[in-house]
Amino acid sequence: MMVLKRAALAVIALILSGCAAGPAIFGPSTGTVAGHVTLRACGGASRIDQTGCRVSPAVDAQLTFVLSDGSQSTTATTDASGAYRVALKPGTYTARLELHASGSPSPAIQSGPTSRGYAGPKQVRVSAGQTFTADFTYTIELL
Questions:
Q1: Peptide bond into 23 cis (omega under 30)
Q2: What are phi and psi of 141, to 5 degrees?
Q3: Dist. CA 11–CA 8, nearest whole Å
Q4: Kindly report the CA angle at 11 between 6 and 16, in degrees rounded to 5?
Q5: CA dist 92 to 4, 9, 26, 43, 63, Å?
Q6: Cβ pair 84, 60 in contact under 8 A
Q7: Residues 67-121: tens digit of each pLDDT
Q8: Angle, alpha carbons 86-79-127 (nearest 5°)
Q9: Rounded to whole angstroms, what are the CA distances from 139 to 29, 53, 55, 58, 118?
Q10: Do the Cβ atoms of 129 and 29 come closer than 8 Å?
């Protein structure tokens, strides 16, 4: 009988010590960032009278999310509709977009102040169990 009580107390102590692990046991420990990447092409020599811009999904665009302290970097790639979704641990991230020429592993366009168009970078704040939407539109002025 005494051995059974000690075993029961040991099991209870083990269960209670697991409570110190916090949210990972009782809820989500990551948040989600999701969105779409689109290309917007305007102008062009054969389209001088064009008033609107053609918009299409950016297929296989690569988004890199870097945690503000630089300790973590995660990459997501868009699908055929330009959509992406990535799970990240809570924190503030800088999201950067790279567009690749079809079939090319090197970026054709990289977001940032030196590129002709501009589609980022963006700051995203990730909270556990929440979804943050970050859409990118890259505008190209055709000559």
A1: no
A2: -90, 110
A3: 5
A4: 125
A5: 49, 42, 23, 37, 15
A6: no
A7: 999 898 999 999 999 999 999 999 999 998 887 655 444 444 544 433 344 466 8
A8: 15
A9: 36, 9, 9, 11, 7
A10: no
Interatomic CA distance for residues 7 and 1, integer angstroms = 10
Q: Could you tell me which of 52, 74, 55, 53 has the C-alpha nearest to residue 65?
A: 74
- Asked if 95 and 124 touch (Cβ cutoff 8 Å), the reply is yes
pLDDT in tens, 47-66: 556 667 888 999 999 999 99
Give the distance, in angstroms, between the CA of residue 143 and the centroid of all CA atoms in the same chain: 32
CA 19 to chain centroid, in Å, comes to: 30
pTM of the shown model:
0.67
CA–CA gap between residue 97 and residue 106 (Å, rounded): 13
Burial 108-142 (b: 16+ CB within 10 A, else e): ebebeeeeebebbbbebebeeeeebebebbbebee
Output the CA torsion sign for 121, 73, 135, 131: negative
* CA separation for the pair 130, 5 (Å, rounded): 43
